[in-house]
Fold this sequence. Notes:
Elements: H1 3-7, E1 15-16, H2 17-23, H3 29-37, E2 41-43, E3 46-47, E4 53-54, E5 60-62, E6 65-66, E7 75-80, E8 84-85, E9 95-96, H4 97-100, E10 108-109, E11 118-124, H5 127-134, E12 142-148, H6 154-161, E13 165-166, E14 171-172, E15 177-180, E16 185-190, H7 197-204, E17 209-217, E18 220-221, E19 230-232, H8 235-244
Parallel strand pairs: 8-9, 11-17
Antiparallel strand pairs: 1-4, 2-3, 2-5, 5-6, 7-11, 7-19, 10-11, 12-16, 12-17, 13-14, 15-16, 17-18
Helix pairs in contact: 2-3
Amino acid sequence: MSSQRQRGTAAGGYIRLNKYLAGAGICSRREADRLMEEGQVTVDDVPAEPGMMVTGREKIKVGDRIVRGTDRKVVVAFYKPVGVTTTAHDPHAAVTLDEVFKYPFRLTYAGRLDRDSEGLLLMTNDGDLIEAMMRGANGHEKEYVVRTRSRISDEQLHRMEKGIWLKDLEAKTRPCRIDRLGEYTFRIILTQGLNRQIRRMCRAVGADIKSLKRVRVLNVTLKGLKPGMQREITGDELQGLYQAAGLQQH
Length: 250
């Protein structure tokens, strides 16, 4: 393996391997580095290292899968049904995302939903968009509709809205916007993405969630979609998404 690849210094025709994998829609750059550290990525049958540079002409594999890049950047809105695990492969999952979401080439999700939740997933092969969407500091809005098993009080909603300490994560949630929709339902708009955040917030105030649906990410909504359906984001909607994410559209 050349010292140029090992050093990870930029040169004509070379690109960082983590960026290449993200651009091919495999995963985020951070996840790509993790996969390399775990020995799951090879370049010309040699284990890859974080920081490595490639041209894309090499035989690049993640696990047993050969990775091929694509020039066309695609974003698809997918309505994930309840019961689907948002991973490509999980031996313990009854149904995985790969089984219900189909596209001519590989797309990956920009922000997952847990198995018991439903709603909007943005699927893309644009690694820069995935990176921007996953970076919590960017404060991108995600909107959810939540139904609880028993009546939720104004005091409980207010406690969550102003920010609440989550003991198991040792973190305090950012202030968020909550609108009551009914005795058992409310709309919540988050600008961060802690693990199972809304479920943890509700549990912290003594509420039990019956259903949770993500209805919007930035400017993209579930409009026109039913569970299991998808639509490609194009035109002004796509341009608005990139602008909201702080990126230039490819």
